[in-house]
Amino acid sequence: MKNSLYKVLCLLLVFSFSDLQAQEKRKTKRIDYKADKQLSSTQAGKTRLFGNVQFEHEGALMDCDSAWYFKDENRIISFRNIEVNQGDSLFMWGDQLEYSGETRQAVVTGKEVKLKDKEMTLTTDRLRLDRNTNIAYYTTGGLVESDENTLLSHEGYYNSNYKVFSFKDSVILNNPQYTIYTDTMDYDSEAYIAYFFGPTTIISDSSKIYCENGRYNTQTDIAQFNKNAFIYDGPRYLTGDSLYYERAGEYGEAFRNVLIHDTLDHYLITGDYGEYFGVKDSAYVTGDPLYTVVDEEGDSLHVHGDTLYSSTYIDSLGNQSRLLQIFYGVRFMRKDMQGKCDSLSYTTLDSTFRMYKDPIMWDDSTQITGDTIYLLTANDKPDTLKVLSNAFMVSRTDSIRYNQVKGRQMLGKFGNGELRKVYVNGNGEAIYYPKEEDGSYLGMNRSICSRILIILKESEVKRITWIGKPEGVMHPIDKIPADRKILDGFKPRFDERPINKADLFK
Predict the structure, then answer these.
(1) CA–CA separation, 408 and 424 (whole Å)
(2) What are residue 474's DSSP bridge partners?
(3) 344: β partners
(4) pTM to 2 decimals?
C-alpha cells in the first residue's frame, strides 16, 4: 500500500514538473514601448499613449500616432499611421493595429492596408499576420503587385518564409501579355510560378488556355497542365490528358487522348501523343493518329496511319495551303469509299489526296489499284480520280465473276460521292459481262483497246465503250475458257477493305 502511494506521488511530481516546464516554455516576452506622452487609465493595466509611439516585441517594431497598451493582457491597440517592421524583411501599413504579445497575432485594418517585402506588395482593407508562422492572410479582397504581375482575389494567404501565396475565390492575375482567371491558385513570388487547383482560363491576344490543374511559369511562359486542359489558338484547339506549353513559340505538347480540332477547316486529329507549333501552324501526332474531316452534309472521312504531320506553307504565288502527311500503314474510309496505301498526303490548295506505294481504293463493289493514285475533292467530297500508272479496276458482278479493266493510266469522275465514269488511256484491256434486261448474262467480252470508257451506276459497271478499234471476242456464258476469265495482275482484295473506324486500327 505504501509502495503504491509512493508511486502515485512520484507520478504527480513528474506531471507537476512537466507542467511547470511547459508553462515556462509558453511564457512570452512583454511588449516594450516608448512615446512622447502617456496617460494611465483608472482601469488597472491600461495606458493611453500619444506622439511618436513605438512598440517592440521579439524583433518587430510597431509605430503609430496613438495607442492603448494593456499591460496585464500584453496587448495593444494602435491608431493612425501604422507601420510594422519585422526585421527589415516584412513591412505593414494601415490605419489601426491590434496585436497580442501572447499569441503573436497582428490584425491591421484601414482603407489601404499594405504588406510589402522584397518580391511583392499586397494591398487590402484587413490583414492578419501570424508571427509564429509568418503567414499573412485576408478574406475581404486583396491586390498583389509583383514586377509586371498584378493579382486580385477575394481570399489570400502569404507565407513570407517561402515567398508563397495561396489565393481563393475570383482570382485574377494580370500580365501585359496575358490574363489568368482561376478559382484557387498558389503563387511562388521568388520562382514566378503559378499553381492552379481549380477551373482556370489563361487569355492572351493569340491564344486561350483552359485547365483545372497545372502550373505556369510567369517569367519563362512555360506551363504544364494536367486536367481537362485545352489550348485554343484561333479556330484550332489542342487537348490531352496532360499538356506542356511554351507561350513564346506557341508550342504545345500533349500526352494521351490527344485531340487537335480546326473549326474553320472542319477537321479533327486524334492520337496518343502530339506536338503543336502555333507560330508555324503545324502539328505532329503519333500513337494511332486519326485524321477526320466532315463535309457539308455531315459525312466523315477518317484517315489512319502510324505518324501524322500537318503544316501550312506559302506557294510561289503567295497562296497559303495546309499540307497533311500520313506515313506507314495508311487506311481511310467514308461511308461510300475506302482505301489503303503505305503513305498519303493532302493539300488544301488543290484539295487532293495523293496515295503512294501499293495504293488501293474501294467504292462499294468496285476496286481500283495502281502505282500512285490521286483523289481530287470538291466541298470535301470525291470529285476526280487519277491513277498515274499500272491502273487496274475490278467490279464484282456476283460471287464468282468480275468485270476487269486495266491500262497505263485511269481517270475517274464522281457524282454525288459515287464513281460514275472511268476513262482508261493507254494499253487498255477489259473483261466485261454484259447483261440482258432481266439481269441474265449475255456472255463475257474480252477486248484490247488503247482507250476505254466505263460507265457505272451505284458502283456497278453498266456499259463499256471502246474508243478506237478494239480487238476482242464474246464468249458464251457457259463456254468461257478457264484461262481467259482474268487479266494479268487481277487480284481481288475486298476482304481487306475497312468497313468501320475500328477496322482502320487493325
Answers:
(1) 7
(2) 445
(3) 326, 355
(4) 0.75
Q: How far is CA 4 from the centre of its chain?
A: 73
List the grid coordinates of 328.
506507314
Q: What is the pLDDT of residues 11-24, one digit of tens each?
A: 333 433 444 344 44
CA 151 to chain centre: 25
Residues with Cβ within 8 Å of 112's Cβ and at least 6 positions away in sequence, in order, are 93, 94, 123, 125
Q: 178-188 and 37-40 as β-strands: parallel, antiparallel, unpaired?
A: unpaired
Q: Do residues 174 and 151 lie in contact, with contact meaning Cβ atoms separated by under 8 Å?
A: yes
Q: What's the Cα-to-Cα distance from 384 to each of 151, 268, 378, 497, rounded to whole Å?
A: 58, 24, 9, 21
Radius of gyration of the chain (CA): 41
Q: Is-contact 254 242, C-beta < 8 A?
A: yes
> What are φ and ψ of residue 30, in 5° steps?
-70, 150
10 Å Cβ neighbour count for 220?
Answer: 12
**pLDDT tens digit string along 342-400?**
999 999 888 899 999 999 999 888 999 999 999 998 887 889 999 999 999 999 988 89
Grid cell digits, residue 258? 490527344
Residue showing cell 463475257: 444
| Mean of pLDDT values over 201-220 | 88
Q: Helix, strand or coil for residue 39?
A: strand
One-letter amino acid for residue 33 of the chain: Y
Q: What is the mean pLDDT of residues 128-154?
A: 91
What pLDDT, in 10s, does the model give residues 384-441?
999 999 999 999 988 899 999 999 999 999 988 788 999 999 999 999 999 888 889 9
Residue pair 180/172 in contact by the 8 Å Cβ criterion: yes
pLDDT of residue 266: 80
Strands of 287-357 (E only): list them.
290-294, 300-304, 307-314, 320-334, 337-347, 352-356
Helix (H) or strand (E) holding 15: helix 2-26
Q: What angle do CA 376, 377, 383 make, to 5 degrees?
A: 80
Q: For residue 315, how many other CB atoms are within 10 A of its CB? A: 10
Name residue, grid cell 507561350.
247
CB under 8 Å, gap of 24 or more: what pairs does 104-107 form?
A: 104/28, 104/57, 104/58, 104/130, 104/131, 104/132, 105/129, 105/130, 105/131, 106/62, 106/131
- The x, y and z cell numbers of residue 313, run together, are 506553307
For residue 451, the model assigns a pLDDT of: 93
The closest alpha carbon to 378, from 341, 344, 333, 348, belongs to 348
Among 138-142, 236-240, 253-257, where is mean pLDDT lowest?
236-240
What letters, b where the CB count within 10 A reaches 16 and e where it falls short, cover 437-446? eeeebebbbb
With beta carbons less than 8 A apart as the criterion, state whether 193 and 201 touch.
no
> Which residues lie below 8 Å from residue 162, measured CB to CB, with a gap of 6+?
188
